[in-house]
Amino acid sequence: MAAALAGLSAAAGAACPPVADRSGELARLFAAVRAAPDADAAAPLTRGIWAIWAAAPDATAQEILDRGMRRREGYDFPGAVREFDRLVAYCPDYAEGYNQRAFARYLQGDYAVALTDLDAALARAPEHTGALTGKALTLIGLGRHADASPVLRAALALNPWLPERGLLPMLDAAEGAGLGAGVEL
């Protein structure tokens, strides 16, 4: 509890530093993952991409992010959302704060609010494949299959080895059947 309060008072009294520009490193990793011959070869590259996104701008932001992720992993979704609220308030330019809050909200079934956070994450990091796949899954959850397909395809254009690639046949079938906005499969 003391650590949580220390993180809150640090966040309240200080400004989050700018998010580091790691676009060159991300571009190299995305090029390598696209060239990977299979999912096994792509896995360490994908972990490297996630490591960049999960590296918060400073120690305070990292503590808040890590607490929120631990709460989410412990199925304390309301607690996770509160931590990610703190992270977004402290570091409003850090895409992963929005992405993680969206994931917690998605797990709560609050798809419309999750979609707002995913759009905020993508406004800050358009190449964030986690936010792109999260948005596709959220759109599917909302029954908006026709909207989900291009978002998932955008993620797969960046990383063709994402596990969500298995959803394409379902989305293609939904499109072929004329299902889309607001229609459940």
UniProtKB/TrEMBL annotation:
> Would I find Transmembrane helix among this entry's keywords?
no
Q: Which InterPro entries match?
A: TPR-like_helical_dom_sf, TPR_rpt, Ycf3
* A Pfam family per the record: TPR_19
Keywords tagged on the record = Repeat, TPR repeat
Which SUPFAM superfamilies does the UniProt record give? TPR-like (SSF48452)
Please identify the protein, giving its name as recorded.
Uncharacterized protein
Q: What organism does the record attribute this protein to? A: Poseidonocella sedimentorum
